[in-house]
Amino acid sequence: MNQTIAFIGGGNMAGALIHGLIEDGVDPGRILVSEPDAGRREQLAARFGARTTEDNTTAAGEAQILVLAVKPQVLPKVARALAPALAQSRPLCISIAAGIRHAALQRWLGEEVALVRAMPNTPAMLQAGATGLYAPPTLSEEHRQAAEHVLRAVGVVVWVEEEALMDAVTAVSGSGPAYFFLFMEAMEAAAVKLGLSPETARLLVRQTAQGATRMALESELDLPDLRRGVTSPGGTTERAVAAFEEGGLRNLVEKALTAAENRSRELSAELEAE
After folding, report:
1. Class of domain 176-268 as given by CATH
2. Residue 272 pLDDT > 80, yes or no?
């Protein structure tokens, strides 16, 4: 990719994307980061060899692809300030701010700006992320491919055809790592109560989670078949799975994801009131 990719904001997710892009072969000289914190600018320059600035307008003026990587709460002010520069440079804008819908972004940035919403998750920092993308049907195929290139540098990418589904993406993959951490935390605590040392419980639970995830990703079997493959009739796993089922695990998971989806909608309404 020979285009200049600029980032507004140099936080953890921006750093993950920059690392992934460089690993994917992008010249660090093609990456420009606008970040108000001088120490963070020095870190980014030293770690990646990327160019840095404290001026958002400068970054927007040079970019063919502009990644909006600031916190959602400050994005309205930042976006409005960028609008005059974007009207001149016309880059593809990619927003990774959770909860802010396309229409609001378009209103703040300018109606003519090519715009993609992205919902990455924190495993992107290990190039193991999952990102949902949304853009209106009017976005060109060239811009779609460019957005995919940026986000695929940190993991898998899926497009959703309806923007409302971005709330579901937020509930499933955006918030999803925390659900798995919670389950692992509960397993570790239960393992200690069963008599294992905290160190042993930690190692067994985390390695088991990694192994199960690899099997789910790499096997041709679906999840029920994989589960049945571990569940011998009358055995220990069957007894444990029955306890989960009797405790309403499936309904609880559905309730949790629905709560997250609803909160995503609420946050969108709050943020877009700016």
Report:
1. mainly alpha
2. no
